[in-house]
Structure formats: C-alpha cells, structure tokens
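Recall that a protein's primary structure is simply its ordered list of amino acids. Everything else, from secondary elements to tertiary packing, is in principle encoded there. The following example makes that idea concrete.
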Amino acid sequence: MTDFTGKKVVITGGTTGIGFATAQRFINDGAKVLITGQDKARVADAAEKLGPNAMGTVARTEVPEDAIHLAEVVAAQFSHVDVLFVNAGVTWPAPLGSIDTDHIHNQLAINVAGPVFTVQAIAPLMGDGGSIIMTTSCLDVLAQPGMAIYSASKAAVRSLVRTFQAELGGQGIRVNAIAPGPINTPIYSKLEMSEDDLNAMAQDVVSKVPAGRFGEAEEISGAVTFLASSDASYIRGEEIAIDGGWSTL
C-alpha cells in the first residue's frame, strides 16, 4: 500500500468504473479525493459511497467555463492539488460508413478538449512533486473496426501527455498515462448496442487478449496510484499499457 495521507486528489469521470475504483484506492491509502461527473445525482451518490474523505462536483470539462469552475471548487476545498487523474471519456462505435459529425465532434470534445481544459485549469494548483495521470487506451496503437474516432481521440491524448510533460516538467510536475484494454465497466452499457451485439463484440475482443478475459477496474487503479506515488518519480511522459497483453503480444 502506498501512503497518500494528506494528499489531495482530483479525478474526472469518478462516479463509476475506473474512476470510482481509483478514488476508492486513493482514499484507502489516506488521500482526500474530489470526483467529477456530468450527472448531479450520480456524483452525490458516488461521493456518499466513497465516504467522508470524498467530495464531488458536476463538471463537463470539455466546456472551458466548467473546467474553470472546477478549478475554483478545487481551490476552495483543497487549496492545492497533489494528483490529477484525467479519466473522463466516452466512446461511440461506428463503422466508417456510419461516421457523422456528431461522432467526431462529441468524442473529440470530451476525449481531447476535456483533458486539455482540465489540465489547463488544474495545473496552476499543482507544484513540485505533483502528478498528472491521463487515461488513454490500448486502441491508440491497435486497429479495432468501428473504433476509428475513439482510437484517434486517445492517440491525441497520448500526444498531449508528451507535450504537457515537456511544458510542466520544469515545475516539477510529472505527466503520464495509463492505457487500459477491455475493462468491465459501465461504459459498455452506454454504447446503445443490443445485448447480442455487445456479447459478440465482447467475445471478439476476448479472443484477441492473451489474458483471455476482460480486466477489472481495480486492476487499473493500482497502476494509477503507482504513477502518482514517489515510487514513479523517474517516470515521465510514459504510457503504461494494462490490457492483458493485447497491444504487446
């Protein structure tokens, strides 16, 4: 267990899945955590489940004004930030022939503009020893039919990690990424696919993963807390794949 006693952590997309599991892990390790989400009731419910060392606020960080407001809330609650986990993201699969402007604009707004505005707003509250972790995806290096725009958006985030590290490194802030593979999270229930199509997609994905299964959110959270800790002090601008070997083997 890593000791995060007294540390202040901000997690976007923290109401379910990887974000929620990571918030729980930080809290178990002694941190105070502020989570964000888009739905007020879900944010409140998640914060209550996480306990007294958690708080939540509604934010759509692809909207610059929301990102600025988030920074104001964080400054009022925490005064400074030790760890920022930029995790909020969406996916809307579509084959090439079905891609429209909504597929492009919505995914690029949430998955690319959101992280930019989040880091832009929160980084001034961080200092020497601060750590930013961003969620990419193994699909930023893999080809999966129907995932062109999502994959492109996550490849963009991978590029942001490198550039943000170059810009923020002089302030003592480390910037890294985790690249999850297929993980059992509620994101799959939001794909507007039939149960049969979801099952077929899941079977196709698992057939390609050397581990032979979907991962669990708790298997991602440990990598995030590692990158946030002093144990990772010499890791900068890196992306760690946590995908059951899919992108490697």
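The chain has a mean pLDDT of 95. The chain is about 45% helix and 15% strand.
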